Fold each of these.
Amino acid sequence: MSLLELSGVEKSFGPVQVLHGVNLTVDAGEVIGLVGDNGAGKSTLMKTITGVYTTDKGRISFDGNDVTGRNPGERRESGIEMIYQDLALAPQQDVANNIFLGREPTKRFLGLLPGFVDKSKIDAEAQHMIDRLGVHVPSIHLPVGMLSGGQQQTIAIARALTFKPKLVIMDEPTAALAVREVESVLNLIRQMRDEGIATILISHRLNDVFEACGRIVVLRRGNVIADLKRDETDMAEVVSYIVGAHG
Amino acid sequence: MLKILERTHVRAESLAVLLVLVVVMAILSPVTGSGVRVFLTANNFFNIILASATFGILAIGATFVISAAGIDLSLGSVLGLASVTGAALVVTLELPWYFAILGALGAGAAAGAVNGFIITRGHVPAFIVTLGMLGIARGLALIISSGRGIYGLPEEILFLGQARPFGVPTPVFILLFVALASHYVLAHTPFGHHTLALGDNENSARATGINIRRQRMLLYTISGLMAGIAGLIFTARVNTGDPTAGLNYELLAITAAIIGGTNLFGGRGSILGTMIGALIMGVLQNGLNLMAVQAYYQQMAIGAVLIAAVWLDQIRTRGRSLQ
């Protein structure tokens, strides 16, 4: 059974239909590349998976459960994480708080008042996660807005991995990075695969997609028009699907 | 010391401004018969805190919504509405004394909830909704009271405004309690973290699964509730449900929050900072009063302080982003 299963997913914004009945499956630990031209519906499709957008029609099941009607918080709870292209970090909050945003562990203040955010636990676990990813961040107490682009990318990944997800969706994680940083992100994806975490990688950089993904799905005008195994295809074929040369 | 400021998100500048202001006002204030500066007497100290208590509690409400990149312009009017609602229930309808409390807090929270509902469901900008509520709440207050003050509240209510247990005015205790509880909520609970994150980057808050609609709804309700508490204290102090109570207080409240270090564009806010901001406004008003400066000039001074505070903040943040 697949980890993620989309069947007949449709989504419109007013009169504009963006997704025309998308079918897609992803297995546990599988790394797939989602490619397509601008406006093909990649971001919309991903946001229907995370629950940020509701679907008009169709069904989304995850880990054996129908999650179609669930909100983003519940889907995150069940193991779907997304790393947005703009990273969706809160720039004035510190590194540790960003990593635990929306899932702050609490304790009782002086053993009495409930709902006290356990800041020392947040700091300790955030530091642990940053160390595990093997990246250098000056201090977890710095506001995220003061860090470099690559460091911010790392914080976003750390946030996604802290709660042991089953599926991580990455939207253009390498677009704004230096060459050395790209390599470390791709290594991270391999490391996640080895731990059994599935990844959907959205990217315009086909080099990165071919390097990291075992399967490549091409989206065009809101439809999946190709679902190719990396070892059985090449860049020229993928490009021809993207631009619509395959009819 | 600096570490405490950092941990509580209080700006050293705000504290410095307060200290400088106290020294200046002390030097400029007139001298009593026994040779003491009027400004420095214990009685005057309580005067400042008493005056600050009303808009200080409003400023706490302002801090919650502004931290989340919102605004509440209806604070002063809702204070007036809460004041007459509480008084009308007890004086006009002759209900038991505690209905003054229920009425004031209920009217405040209800007005805030209506703000929150229209902002979140109707996607009408908070600026417009709360500006409209500024007119609606004031009008409603005047209708309920027929435009006149409602005098003569029971002892139990007057206690909340005029009594001095342990020599300290009751409103000071109420302010302390509300401020500490609010500080706890904003700085140390998930609700507070989510409030700041929402003001910082709404997409980020949504992406991490925070229920933004519920969060905003609660924030505006809290803001209205604060106006209700402030209205209750006001009513108890002057023994009147006053439909004109809190006129222009939103100016004081928002100014206090901003000079206390709350970011006008959201993402940063501190209740303790706001309390220092409220004290700055209180000291300023009190000092100008003692120097017999006309109230008209005071209005100007407060408006100028608000603009200067935001201007300075802009210079700071721009300076930082250029580095």
Note: The first strand of chain B starts at residue 150 and ends at 151.
Amino acid sequence: MIYFDNAATSMIKPLAVSRAVLKAMQTMASPGRGAHEPAMRGAKVVFDCRMEAAELFNVPDAEQIVFTMNATHGLNIGINSMVRRGTRVLVSGYEHNSVTRPLAFMGADIHVASSAPFDSAGILESFKKELPWAELVVCTHVSNVFGFILPIYEIAELCRRQGVPLIVDASQSAGTLEVDYSRLGAEFIAMPGHKGLFGPQGTGLLICARPCLPLISGGSGTDSIVQHMPEYLPDRLEAGTHNVCGIAGLLEGIRYVRDKGIKNIFEHETELVKSMTESLSQVEGLEIFTNGRRFQSGVLSLRSSKLSCEDMAAALSERGICVRTGLHCAPYAHRSAGTLETGTVRFSFSPFNTEEEVDACCQFIKDLL
Amino acid sequence: MQYLIMCRSMTYAQRSAALLERSGIFARVVKAPLGLSSNGCGYGVALSRRFDEARELLKRYNLISGKIFFRDDEGEYREIN
């Protein structure tokens, strides 16, 4: 099997991740619910993971690291805290439904700052133009469809100058690009644990600037007499039993990323994008969405005039090559790129993918078309 | 005898204990006796030695967020400033 669907979830993990999950399942109880040995072991893993994440994302206090189920969960917390009916929200033209659906649900007034894929200057200009109107900006760091790296630090700077709060969706960048909380100065940064951070599914992180509205309420293990959630982080946003097994795996995933180095991971993944692009560039009728490694992460989308995206993905799947097709839950991105009618076939890489896998996949596509 | 420095959350207690440990001061994260917390369950760090040093260190890092108790050999707690 060749697994090229890492933008959805990184299925191939470092071995330490599954070992940690199993160990947690067998030896750890609920943190903050008792002072016995298994509970304290669980608490230590949860704390270590907060500290490791705080280091990786340059967050001053570990309390600002909140565990979520996934990036969508974190984005919902942020959006629910800051948006009311009619709030004027500016988003990029590359947002995932995990941003746009909660905004629609809350009744936000949404404007889109857009550009063609990989037009970094263009999207920045669009943000500059629209920002005076906005009360909030929600922006992805990297498009999950095209791997387009948005100029998020420049957008954050614009927001700071205008006094507009910012929520960052780091779903596709956490673990592959520098996500620096202190430099961004965002209100919230949401990310999954199960993609570039190599944790198990069901894990995510939300970095919070300050306490906000909890999405759910319940037991926190502290201040039990008080009938509302604690005012302080992370307890305010972590009602109910933690996913200790998942967090134990996530801790090992983050350690792997820190050990390997984000720059090395990015370099490896984008090298695979380059190889695939070069190999397929002469295939007739194939449209490849790339920019020669400028403003592009380890994600590559393409479509063929000869075969539908679904048929191509099905053929690849029969051959044991896992990719994702369709709209990737990101209609805004496809609208920006003009691919809403067809969708694309997306190849997304991880440090565990190899040049040999890319070669095999490219050969199959050439034979197919 | 031991000192108990109450913390506003388990995470705060863990941060406090980690900071003290880095300075060579042994402190344990403990669940605080219910009677010491006005809001119900709470956590703190307990230590037997180098209390003054520990308190100063935690103050410097803004980690003093709750009351501080001294527990005598009979197990009685009294609040200290």
Note: Chain B touches chain A at residues 8-12, 14-15, 18, 29-31, 37-43 (CB under 8 Å).
Amino acid sequence: MEALLQGFAVTLSLDNLFYCFVGVLLGTVVGILPGLGPLTTIAILLPITFKMDVTSAIIMLSGIYYGVAYGGTVTSVLMRIPGEASSVVTCLDGYEMARKGRAGAALGIAGIGSFFAGTVGVIGISFLSPPLAELVIKFGPAEYAMLMLAGLTMVTYMSAGSLPRALLMAAFGLLLGTIGSDPMNMTPRLTFGILALGDGVNLVPLAIGLFGLSEVLFMARQTAEEMKILPAPTGVLGFLPSREEARRSVAPVLRGTVLGFFVGLLPGGGAVLASFLSYAMERKLSKRPEEFGKGAVEGVAGPESANNAGTAGAFVPLLCMGIPANAITALLLGAFIIHGVTPGPTILERQPQVFWGVVASMYIGNVMLLILNLPMIGLFVKILQIPRAYLTPMILIVCLIGVYSSSGNPADVLIAVVFGFVGYGLRRHGFDLGIVILAYVLGPIFERSVRQSLAISDGDPSIFLHSYLSTGFAIVAVALLIAGLWPKRKARASA
Amino acid sequence: MSNLGGTRLATFGLLAAALVGLWQSMRLESWGFDGPGAGFFPQLVAGVCVVLALIVLVSPGRAGSTEDGDTEDQRGTAETRRTFAIYAISLVVLALGAAFAGFVVTAVVVAVIIVRFAERRSWAAAIGYGVACAAVGLVCFGWLLRVDLPEGPIERAFYSLVR
């Protein structure tokens, strides 16, 4: 506790407060705007921080990282364009809430839930880092493979559609993830000799195509009456959820926070998996599962809390073990090293002011994000009042900027358009597109884990049952598959 | 086309994609001297995808929750079909424009196609809105934020003036 108070003393200096504010502001803007992802922004700003104090630099760069999680929600709710992979699931119910005139409430709940989850996540980092870091070390390739399998099975089991359909979407997402160079020996796979597919199908064109562009095609099919979006309250307090919405959000926020933090600890797609698992769990536990996909407030509150808690959780392996959980934390690791700080078990002994300064800045950064975002919600929801004739070209241009700038490759725009049509066709016939994205994101980690495990065991698949952890995950996966095909569920599905 | 027929058609598309994936991955090494090869996982996943697609083809089961509003008549009115076709064309123009015409021309043409032809607003509104969108995109993203935008003669001329 004393160390944390010292951290606050470091963060509350005028300089560090300023850099923290700049970080979260940039993060929010980057999350809302297409084109500039957190990775690009941190990479651009990294050289600027070379002459800064190490703690200030890390505080600013971390602020960008967790600020993006807030900003990405805005485009998901208002335009059905996911700002990042972990915002994909927010598109489903957030956008439907916006169409019902509850955009402000959706953004407000997301903001408040994210604040709560982010803060609890930081408390988790403060007090649980060392033991959690030891737990994460126990995850070998076999445990990872089975965890990914269990995660995917859980999300497909809890899908609203039939299990075979959901599993088909998961397999399709995994197949898309195998396009491009083999992650282990760089052999080109499923590229058909097309150079543009050498790096695979990127996440940005895939997500924007399946969600943003397919939505434009859906809008085109609707009549003026069907298109009608109920006006959202735009007053200063217009973002506040109703009493009923607030009541329904409490439990999902709490569950999403706990789930998100622990799943976020895992390297790879922790925050993404957490948001999907939270959505699936809320749908399963809800008394009104039929409302999911049609504007259920639990479908926004749970996943948004989970992805923010997951973002905080991702700092545990980074700070305590020097293991980056994703590409952005890998860049932050680079920033640490450039500034002469080596994250790992010894950071608490050698440079406690950096560790606790960063942790304390997250508390303050979360407060700043809340203050910064809530008053702006009224401004954001005005986008929904734009008529379709002018809104759709704007969405297309935003998608064009977002996709092209992610790689500078015009072929990615073509890929996004192709997936726009594919997404439209699949969505129209009741296939869950969110599962495709989740499987695509987890696919490379799943593949690497499976192959590493089999390489270690010389092809013996029993390696997946050698530890309690992996056996437990395997049992969960099999049990969910059996439960999904159980006659009771089948009867419910056909009802 | 009935909704069930549409579902089977969509599943058939997925089956075709999976079969192509399986065919391509069969050409890769599935097992090497150091363990699973590059083809191991794609073969496994594509095989599973084929089996699941066949199951869904035979028994489509219940639809998911993302098909909101699809129980209506799928054909829609002639006007709706026309609007949809124009929007679909605008997406194709978006892809082609990004490759060959640059950001400004693409943004203006896409806006004009939608505002003028799909939504039947005036030429002035369509062109004015297109130019405004293109200008905001070019200045804010291309110049001030230095975001990569598709480049054509207009973008190159603009950047040579301001950069």
Note: The mean pLDDT of chain A is 81.
